[in-house]
Amino acid sequence: MLPGGTLKEENNMPRINTNVSALRAQRILTQSDRAFGRSVARLSSGFRINRASDDAAGLGIANKIRADVGALQQASRNAEQAISLLQVAEGGAFQVEAIVERMKELASQSASDNVSDSDRLLIQAEFSELQSEITRIVSTTKFQGNVLLDGTLGNVVDTDDTNSTILAAGTQVQSAQITGATADTYTFSQSGADITLTNSAGDLTQVVTVGGGGKQTVSFSAFDLSIELTASFATTADTVAGNLVVNGGNTSFLVSVSGDPAGNDKVSLTSLDIRLATLGSSVVATGLAAESLSTKAGAEQAIGVLDQAIQDVSSVFGSIGAAQNRIEFALNNADTAIENFSAAQSVIRDVDVATESTEFARLSIQQQATTAMLAQANAAPQLVLQLLG
How would you write 344-366 as a 3-class SS string? Predict the structure, then answer.
């Protein structure tokens, strides 16, 4: 090479041992073959980036976008499931509303003197059945095992509360899970194989006898609460006693993945509580649970309680409807983001078929031309035979 980077003219004198022209053609053919292989890979896979060396920075960006798309797709499914949950809750609430309306009709009938006391007993019989039906609907309206309308949806065991002493080290209790436990501070005690749980009011206690020691789950059906014991749990150990705190909380649905899972990525819903004792409780502390239509005075009082009960159910409908609308907007936003992120990923990683097809044709022709020239270069040394003749 001459100064300045200019290639020096080759000496074209015929030689046998080193065929420079053939070596050059072979080098160019090898490069063309590699480029041709990359072009084939892109067209066959549909990706512009098939390995990190194709575009290391682009691959990193595309992978991050792909992860975001996957998370957004799950967030979209979360939103769809949340809407389904709310629809189940709404269906149960509609039935409770219909029952309360019928109960008001009965109360209005019983409060009138055109019926006798014996008639009121018949009215009360239907009223009692309707009370029982509200309780049944509330307790059986579930989604994935979670009761939706009894006010326990979203309640959690507070493992950080200093009052939750049974979750401290050395108590043989590993964790606690709830499926519908009411917010309260429960008293837990163990005496041999018997484990006792009591609510703070002291009016409900359940004793479960475990079959032996070791890691196991103890279910307290009376509280819809399960406690998982550690592997070191032993029925012969000293008595363990302490508290377990269950806090009421909002139900939340993760509908976005902006990086704020504890805040803006969630849509929250306040607890839905239309239990018999809750409906109308702002008028009478016991709500509809203790109302009776067997007397005219009782029926007159029940009308006021039922008016408030109807308002309470309407408030639940308002919460459900507002949450449904918000989640539907969040779902639409997530689907739009998925579309746009997917387009961005495609620009980075997917192959432009038109451009790559042109490159493929060029490389194919170049391969053929280089192969022909290599054949010519390999034949050139045969000209030396003319000198030897």
Answer: HHHHHHECCHHHHHHHHHHHHHH
Q: Are 163 and 185 in contact (CB under 8 A)?
A: yes
Beta bridge partner(s), residue 246: 157, 184
Among the CATH numbers 1.10.10.10, 3.40.640.10, 3.30.70.20, 1.20.1330.10, which is that of 62-151+259-343? 1.20.1330.10
Q: How far apart are CA 11 and CA 229, in angstroms?
A: 89
Q: Identify whether the C-beta of residue 222 lies closer than 8 Å to the C-beta of residue 231.
A: no
216 within 8 A of 280, measured Cβ to Cβ: no
How much is the pTM? 0.71
pLDDT in tens, 218-257: 888 888 788 777 777 777 765 667 788 887 767 888 898 8
Domain parsing of the chain, residue ranges: 62-151+259-343, 156-248
Report pLDDT digits (tens) over 6-52.
Answer: 555 455 555 667 778 888 888 888 888 888 877 787 887 777 877 77
The CB density around residue 238, as the number of other CB atoms within 10 Å, is 9
pLDDT at 166 over 60: yes
Cα–Cα distance, 191 to 170 (Å, whole number): 16
Total Cβ atoms within 10 A of residue 255: 24
What is the chain's percent helix, strand, coil content, to nearest 5? Answer: 55, 15, 30
DSSP state string for 71-117? HHHHHHHHHHHHHHHHHHHHHHHHHHHHHHHHHHHHHHHHTSTTS-H
CA end-to-end span of the chain: 35
